[in-house]
Amino acid sequence: MGLLKDDLNKTAVAMGKVIKLLDDVQGKLSWGNDLYEHKEALYGIAYVCRVGILDRIEKNHWSMNMPIAIPSGIFKFKKMPLATALMQTVVRLKEISQQDVTIENNVNDILDGVGFYHEFVSIFSEEQMAQLHKSI
User: Is this structure's pTM higher than 0.70?
Assistant: First the structure.
């Protein structure tokens, strides 16, 4: 049971990070920046979604109704069903990436762990990947 709770906590933290990163990207886009200028950030966010959120959900077979407490600041949490949290992270990322068909396809590949996912992962050294996985 302890590992399940640890995975749930790590997933909640990853979701909190994704929400913050998406807020940052959307803020830049609202200032008239082109989505293409932020494609690397979107690919990184998609990777965090894949390994920090989706892989854990699939591994643990969690119900979409299960509550999750997502950190939203120092000592602040938003409690919501897992399905709602996915809407604010993965679905929101997909909606943002729809503005460019290439970025959309690459983000979807990363989220699905196929195609461009392998190309994206290959640009990182083993040390960089280990460091990234520690943070999510």
Answer: yes
